[in-house]
């Protein structure tokens, strides 16, 4: 498939693999992979104590009969202040198994859909001379990039990262740091030719 570069690049085009960037949209696959990716980021470290784990409560507070009070076997009963929890939370592992073919398949499907919706802008190169936010904003404005923008470069560009750090709607990532959640979470995708070539090799 032929993908036209942005008009700032002089009307050039690049040839991309249909097997990677020409896939039909698979909503079920994308949903499963995105859900698994988000679940893998959950800490799952919440923990509470049951009545057997709370300190104290080894002795019966008062006699079973004769005191006029309700029966009580422990001061650490879940009914008491300072007692254990009836259904205590325990550390959990929320991760879901997703094999490599499914993960890469979801990446191909998402990229193909972004290209179909004309939400991908490709340039021969994209960088800033100095790590200044104002310079990056002006460059994005000249490209007509508004809303939430994801900038993908072949390698980590420190100046570009520092320039975008104060922009809430702009995120910079290299190819190795790209994931399905970042792709579906932005309105537009700005990529350089080297980055899209490297991505094509990875997903081939």
CATH topology of the largest domain: Ribosomal Protein L4, Chain: A
How would you characterize the largest beta sheet? 4 strands, parallel
Q: If helices are DSSP runs of H or I spanning 4 or more residues, what is the number of helices? A: 7
Strand content: 5-15%
Provide the helix percentage. 25-40%
Structural class: alpha/beta
Number of folding domains? 2
| CATH architecture call of the largest domain | 3-Layer(aba) Sandwich
Distance between the termini: 15 Å
CATH class of the largest domain: Alpha Beta
The CATH superfamily of the largest domain is known as: Ribosomal protein L4/L1
- General shape: elongated
Give, in order, the helices and strands.
EEHHHEHEHEHEH
Over the alpha carbons, how many angstroms does the gyration radius reach?
A: 27 Å
Task: Give the integer mean of the pLDDT values.
Answer: 93
Within the largest sheet, what's the order of strands?
A: 3-6-4-5
Low confidence ranges: none
Describe the model.
Helix 4 (133-142) crosses helix 5 (158-164). 21% of the residues are buried. The strands form two sheets. The chain has a four-stranded parallel sheet. Strands 1-2 form a two-stranded antiparallel ribbon. 33% of the residues lie in helices and 12% in strands. The protein has helices spanning 18-21, 27-40, 100-116, 133-142, 158-164, 180-184, 193-203, and strands at residues 2-4, 13-15, 120-123, 149-153, 170-174, 188-192. The protein folds into two domains: 2-43 and 98-203, Ribosomal Protein L4, Chain: A (3-Layer(aba) Sandwich), CATH 3.40.1370; 47-90, no CATH class. It is an alpha/beta fold. It has seven helices and six strands.
């Amino acid at each position: 498939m032929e993908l036209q570069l942005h008009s700032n690049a002089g009307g050039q085009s690049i040839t991309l693999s249909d097997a990677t960037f020409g896939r039909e949209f698979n909503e079920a696959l994308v949903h499963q992979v995105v859900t698994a990716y988000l679940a893998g980021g959950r800490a799952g470290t919440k923990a509470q104590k049951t009545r057997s784990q709370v300190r104290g409560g080894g002795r019966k507070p008062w006699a079973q009969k004769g005191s006029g009070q309700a029966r009580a076997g422990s001061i650490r009963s879940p009914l008491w202040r300072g007692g254990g929890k009836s259904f205590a939370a325990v550390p959990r592992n929320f991760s879901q198994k997703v094999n490599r073919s499914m993960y890469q398949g979801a990446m191909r499907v998402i990229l193909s859909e972004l290209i179909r919706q004309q939400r991908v802008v490709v340039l021969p190169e994209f960088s800033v001379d100095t790590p200044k936010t104002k310079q990056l904003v002006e460059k994005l404005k000249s490209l007509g990039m508004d809303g939430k923008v994801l900038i993908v470069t072949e390698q980590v560009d420190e100046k570009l990262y520092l320039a975008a750090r104060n922009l809430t709607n702009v995120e910079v990532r290299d190819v190795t740091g790209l994931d399905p959640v970042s792709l579906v979470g932005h309105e537009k995708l700005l990529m350089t030719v080297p980055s899209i070539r490297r991505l094509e090799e990875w997903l081939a």
